[in-house]
Amino acid sequence: MAEERPSGAWERKPLYRYKELRDSQILYLGDNYYYAPIWQNPYGCGGRRRWFVEVRANEGAEHAFFVRILEQLIKWYTKDLAVYEHSKPDIVFNCPKHGSVAVEVETGSRKQSKARMESRFRELKKKYGLVLVLVTDKYLKKQYENLAKTITRTEIKREIANCFDAWKG
């Protein structure tokens, strides 16, 4: 039986640092929503941390994690963004430098034909000013470099900041 919602100042979010949750919150989320634990470092430097991420029906925990990390990062610069579940890029946002930007997160877990991928990215390039592909494994980068601007997690902060001319790096 599911526990009652934990009391106190607490709100449901799509991503939590595991150590910031109380046991009652972990039980509540696990019983009432589809949350998955994941060990990951979002930006590829330093040690991994444990996270608790809300996973939608069509995605794995790693994919969901990076979509949520990107969403939080982009919200530092603009509230003009949308996160999609089906048939569109994972994230679309507007920025002064490129206009409309599409971001796809690729974990390498779904194999697609080369022709289908080329067709998909060709359509995205027609519709958006910039198409970014975030690969969660650096060894996937070569597979996507000829399709769109491809970044790894170590480049996330810089590329998003560059869209807003905010990189001081």
Question: Can you offer a commentary on this structure?
Answer:
The chain has a single domain, classed as Trna Endonuclease, Chain: A, domain 1, CATH 3.40.1350. The protein is built from 5 helices and 8 strands, in the order E-H-E-E-H-E-E-E-H-E-H-E-H. The termini are far apart. By secondary structure, the protein is an alpha/beta fold. Strand 6 (99-106), helix 3 (114-127) and strand 7 form a beta-alpha-beta unit.
Number-wise, the strands total 8
Please identify, by name, the CATH architecture. 3-Layer(aba) Sandwich
Helix content: 25-40%
Beta content comes to 15-25%
Biggest beta sheet summary: 5 strands, mixed
Number of helices, counting only DSSP H or I runs of 4 residues or more? 5
Strand order of the largest sheet: 4-5-6-7-8
What is the number of domains? Answer: 1
CATH level 1 class label: Alpha Beta
Features:
5 helices, 169 residues, globular, alpha/beta, 24% strand, five-stranded mixed β-sheet, three-stranded antiparallel β-sheet, Trna Endonuclease, Chain: A, domain 1
Topology record:
Blueprint: E1 15-17, H1 23-32, E2 35-40, E3 49-54, H2 61-75, E4 81-83, E5 91-95, E6 99-106, H3 114-127, E7 130-135, H4 141-144, E8 149-151, H5 156-163
Parallel strand pairs: 6-7, 7-8
Antiparallel strand pairs: 1-3, 2-3, 4-5, 5-6
Structure described in brief:
This protein has 169 residues and is an alpha/beta fold. It contains five helices and eight strands.
